[in-house]
Amino acid sequence: MGLSRGSLTGMLILPKKKKKKKKKTAVLIWIFLRRRQHPRIMPTEGIIMQFKYTALQHMTRNFSELLGKGGFGSVFKGALSSSTVIAVKQIRSVMQQEKDFRTEVTTLARIQHINLIRLLGFCCEGTKRLLVYDYMPNGSLDRHLFNRNGVVLDWKTRYQIIVGVAKGLEYLHEKCKERIIHCDIKPENILLDSEFCPKVSDFGMAKLIHRDFSRALTTMRGTIGYLAPEWILGQPITPKADVYSYGMMLFEMISGRRNIDQSQRTNDKYFPVWAARKLNEGDVISLLDENLAHEANIEELARVCKVACWCIQENEAHRPSMGLAVLMLEGLVEVNLAPIPSLLLQLTEDPSSIIYYSI
Question: Any idea where this protein resides (predicted)?
Answer without folding.
Answer: Membrane
